[in-house]
Structures are given as structure tokens and as C-alpha cells.
Amino acid sequence: MTAKSLGGRLVGWVSGSLVRVFLVVVGLFWLVPTIGLLLSSLRTPEDMNDSGWWTVFTEPAQLTVDNYQKLLDNPDITDSLVNTVLITVPATVLVVVVAALAGYAFAWMEFPGRDWWFLAVVGLLVVPVQVALIPIAELFGKLGLFGSILGVVLFHVGFGLPFAVFLLRNFFAEIPRELLEAARLDGAGELRLFARVVMPLAAPAIASLAIFQFLWVWNDMLVALVFTDAGSQPITVALQTQVRQFGNNIDVLAPGAFISMVIPLAVFFAFQRQFVSGVMAGAVK
């Protein structure tokens, strides 16, 4: 019995070690493009033309921060980075706040046509972004929003809300009714119930939604190409413009692309615990 138990523990340890090694290898492969872009952004254009980024490991003297200095001196890139923040943060916050309020209303409040309104929201999930580009561009042109940051934010909010409302409504609906009834018996109104009971319970789902929305808006280029002008374009459009106009300015493109990629990665890793909790909570429910 002891030998069998020892053998079982040994097999379990070996299996667990193999799984961990496999996951580490997969993680390293996943990070190779990021590492390569980082090292490329720290090399001079001459070095990048002469050899690959992996030669840095044998010739570390190639590394320099001059490219980032040139990037900071490029107003097109720096302004577009600020524009990206001004687009992404409001679009994410508005979607989370409005979807949380709407999701709670659809889940726990009674009002005429509630189920039909929710079905209409679900139906909007199948509307492709490409179908709405021209009509909304014409509408924004009449309203004076075309080419502005506000127009891009409103577009992302409008197309982000259906999925957000659907996700949070389903999550809120799984909260035990007894818990909400107990809070109501204690004198809590709907607003206090939403803020003090529902929101803390839904924190993992809200964090997951915020990450999805942030990554989608930050990395978007199609909507930004259509609705922005030279003064409101985000980093994705600015980098694409630099490639088109100055195909050989890799010393600016490489650090710009790395900054554009590393910020979403940092956001994801900073909130990965909440993201996993939200995904697991949805899977269990």
C-alpha cells in the first residue's frame, strides 16, 4: 500500500512537472514576438538592416534608447498615443457603467416590455460593424462629430453595449434572489442595492468586461481610420500612416509599435486575477 501510494505520488509529481514545463514553453513562445519587438526597438536602423534581433544576446552593445528619444520627439506619435488614451478610457468606462445599470434593470427590475427590449439588445449582437460605418459616418457628419474623438468614443460605446449588457444581465440574473430580498427588507432601495450588493458580487465579471472592451478599443484601427482625422487619430492609425509615408523609419515604428502593444499587455496582466475569476464564475454558473 505504501509503495503504491509512493508510486502514485511520483507519477502525479512527474505529470504535474511536465504540465508546468509545457505551459512555460507555450508562454515563452507566446512572448517571442513581444520580446523581439522590444529588442528591435532598442537597436539602431543599421543594426536592424544588418542582422536579426536575436543577435543582441551575443552583441549586447547594440542596445540603445535613442529610438525612444526620437519617438518622443515625433509629435504625430505622441499626440496619437494621447488620443488613444482619450478614446479608450471613456469608451471602456461608459460601456461598463451603462451596461451594469442596464444589466441590473433587465435582470431584477420589472417594467413594460422588459423581455422584448432585452431580445432587441441581443439582436444587435449580430449587426456587423462594417454595415454601420457609412450610415453612422453620414449621421456624425450632420451632427458635427465626424473626425472627432467624441465620435469614435460614441461609436465604440454603441457597438460595445449589446455584448456588455448581455454578459452582465446573465451574470446578475444568477445572484440569489433571497440575498436581494434580504437587502430590501433591511430598507435598501434599488440604487443602494445595486451599489452595495450587486456590484461587489459582480466585480469579476465587470473586470472581465472592462478588459475585453479596453483591448478591443485600444487595438482598433478600422473604426479609427473611418471616423478620425489627422488631429484625432489613435496610435494604430498613426503607425499605419508612418509606414505608408516613411517606409524606412523603423527607428520610430519599432518603439511606437512596442508601446502600442505593451500597454494592453500590462492592463491584462494587472487584472488577470479578476479576469480568470470572472471567466470561472461564468463557467460555474
Q: Can you describe what's shown?
A:
By secondary structure, this protein is mostly helical. It has helices spanning 2-41, 45-50, 66-72, 75-108, 114-123, 129-143, 149-173, 177-185, 190-201, 203-219, 222-227, 235-245, 250-270, 272-284. The protein has 14 helices and no strands. The two termini are 40 Å apart. The model is unreliable at 279-285 (pLDDT under 50). 79% of the residues lie in helices and 0% in strands.
Please write out the topology.
Layout: H1 2-41, H2 45-50, H3 66-72, H4 75-108, H5 114-123, H6 129-143, H7 149-173, H8 177-185, H9 190-201, H10 203-219, H11 222-227, H12 235-245, H13 250-270, H14 272-284
Helix pairs in contact: 1-13, 3-13, 4-7, 4-10, 4-12, 5-7, 7-10, 8-9, 10-13, 10-14, 12-13
In brief:
This protein has 285 residues and is an all-alpha fold.
**Major sheet characteristics:** none
Total DSSP helices: 14
Q: C-alpha Rg, in Å? A: 24 Å
Give the CA-based shape.
flat
Number of strands: 0
Structural class: mainly alpha
**Any low-confidence stretches, pLDDT <50, length ≥5?**
279-285
Kindly state the percentage of residues in helix. over 70%
Q: Strand fraction band? A: under 5%
Distance between the termini: 40 Å
Mean pLDDT value: 82
List the helices and strands in order: HHHHHHHHHHHHHH
Features:
single chain; 285 residues; mainly alpha; 14 helices; 79% helix
